[in-house]
Amino acid sequence: MNKIHIEKNSVQETLIVPLFGRKMCAEKFPELYTDTSAKAFCEKLDYDFSELEKKQDTFFYEFGALEAAMRQLDMM
Question: Which residue positions in the chain have pLDDT lower than 70?
Answer without folding.
Answer: 76
